[in-house]
Each structure stands twice: as structure tokens, then as C-alpha cells.
């Protein structure tokens, strides 16, 4: 399809398989933006303060999210920590928790309680394999551990391979993949290894992320050729690659008042996630990286909705759809709480995007 000139399209409700919804007032502001951006199914990250390391904490959090957005299906995760034992995994499976997020200690926001030595968790991974929980990887090594000239993500890829070889039946997601090498590494694994691709990594590169706090995130956007590999993967029709926005809100003041390069990591896309994916793809066509023929209805539906649901063993459709129409709408600069005490800047503020209307199943 010719997205650039297309006036109207209909898509199934998006499944966003990687979201940060925070807590407190920030949560109250962010959770409603899921549906604004066309999402009715979301896989929720556990990097709260304190991190969600017990099943009871996860279930309590899920209750709070459901109270704010009763129409959204929240898939929940535990934060991998020494207290997450094989017994915890059994309890998590019984409670309907679907994944466990591994943060290398010190790699990103709220990862201080993360994993220092992956091998110490092999019993937990074996239990996850047995109970069919998904392992969600923040696939980056610490800066000190990456060889010169290798990105933090590329240096992590051998660990992905080792984990897959050791636990062949464990479903693994390489979250927010950002490099051509990661795309290849995921393709080389069996069908139970997949990867999420964000909206912002379809349009940002290191040249944006270096200097604009609202484009800075972890993993950091890479070279144009890496971005282009992600665009191609997103429209490849390969079900291993599905949408996970990694939308990560931070107070606008923390972004604007930090010294250059010191802003907290995270790009906030949630209120327009579906539209931002479409914008990234449209720009990919304009640059000649992907073609209009790549943008079929089937491939868009697969990437934005069906493949993620399939990987998480959900029905492939929720029955809800989205009507997207060109009406000259522009991305608002920020979202805020009623009192104005919480404000978050939105990625690509001012860009013209499709307007979104829900078509809910009867
Ligand atoms: O940019 C990021 N922000 N990357 C992450 O891994 C965490 C996230 C956050 O929680 O802010
Ligand atoms: Zn994340």
C-alpha cells in the first residue's frame, strides 16, 4: 500500500509486547495512553521502584492497571532477581504471570537489582522452561564488557545463543532489538526465540539519540543501516519479529534539566504508538529501504498485532479494530496530569499522523 497518500486504513487493535507503565501519578497519566495509541494488549515491564520480584507484587500491580484501563489485557512479568526461585516460577505460572524480565545489573533504568551472573539463574530458567514462562532479555552487556568497536547489544548476542542452546524449549524474547546483527542472531535461532521492535528504533539513529534527550534510550539507536535492518524485519512477515514499543515515560523536567548526555533513558511513544510505527515505515519507503509492496495489510497486521499474540499463545485477534484516517492531526508535545504536576514529552511532537478511532467488537 501507498501509506504516504493513503487516507484511511483499518487494522486490528495493536498488541504492544513491551511497555513501561510506572506507578503512582505517572501510572495514572500513562495507562490511559495505551488505548489512545491503539493498544488493547500489553506486556508490562516490572522495573518499578522497588522492582516486582514477588508474584503477589505483580498481581497487585496488575489490579491497579486494570482499574485504570479495564478494556486492556495486561500480560505481566516478574523482575529476575535472586529471590525468583524455581518455586516462585511455579507460583507465577499458577497466577497467570507470563514472563520474567532479565536486566543485566546496571544496564538501564531501575536495573540495580538485576542480574550480575546469568549462570546463577539456570535452575530458574529450567523451571521457566518447564512451566512455559517467557524469558524477556534486556540484551546489552555493561560498557566495560563490550570489546572496542562492538555495540553493547552485539556483545550480548553470544549469550542469547548460549541460553537458547542450553534451554531449547524456553521461549525467549530479545527485547527492543536495535542492530542488523541482532536481527540475524534471532533469525538463526529456533522458532521459540523472537524479538520485539519498537516504533522509535524504526526512525531514530545514533545521530538523533546523541543530542536530543527525547530520542535517548537504552539500547541507544544505532547506525542508519541498523535502523534499516529493523524496518525490513518489521515488514518481512517473519513472525519472530513483533511490536513492543518500549515506551518509557520520564518526567519532562528530568529530560530538559539534565546535562547533555545525562538525561534518563527512555523514549515516550505510547499515545501514538500505532501511528508512529506507520510513520517510521512510511519514511522507510521514502528513503527506498522498503517498498510499497512490502506494506501489505497482512504484514502490518502480523507485525502490529498477530505475531505478538501468537508468540504469547493468545488468540490471534481480540476482535477490536482501529480506524486510521488522515485528518491533519499532529502529535501533541506532551501529556500531563490534571494538576500539571506530571508531564511527559512525546516523541516526534508536531509530526503529522493518522487519527485513530476504535471499532470495538459488539
Ligand atoms: O530506554 C529505556 N528506558 N530502556 C530501558 O531498558 C528501560 C527504560 C525505562 O524504564 O525507562
Ligand atoms: Zn523497556
Automatic annotation (TrEMBL):
Classification via InterPro entries: Amidohydro-rel (IPR006680), DHOdimr (IPR004721), Dihydroorotase_CS (IPR002195), Metal_Hydrolase (IPR032466)
Pathway where this protein functions: Pyrimidine metabolism; UMP biosynthesis via de novo pathway; (S)-dihydroorotate from bicarbonate: step 3/3
Residues annotated as transmembrane: none
GO cellular component, one term: cytoplasm
Residue intervals of the Amidohydrolase-related domain: 83-180
E.C. designation(s): 3.5.2.3
Keywords: Hydrolase, Metal-binding, Pyrimidine biosynthesis, Zinc
Domain of life: Eukaryota
Family matches, as Pfam families: Amidohydro_2
GO terms, molecular function: dihydroorotase activity; metal ion binding
Top-level enzyme category: hydrolase
Family statement: Belongs to the metallo-dependent hydrolases superfamily. DHOase family. Class II DHOase subfamily.
Protein name: dihydroorotase
Organism: Hypocrea atroviridis (strain ATCC 20476 / IMI 206040)
Classification lineage: Eukaryota, Fungi, Dikarya, Ascomycota, Pezizomycotina
